[in-house]
Amino acid sequence: MSRDDKVAVVETFLSCLASKDLAQLPIEPDLTVESPLVPRVSGASAMKYLKRLADAVRAIHVKQHIVEGDWVATVFDEETAGGSVSVFAKFQVVSSGIRDVTVFYDSRAGAQK
Question: Does the predicted model carry a pTM greater than 0.85?
Answer without folding.
Answer: yes
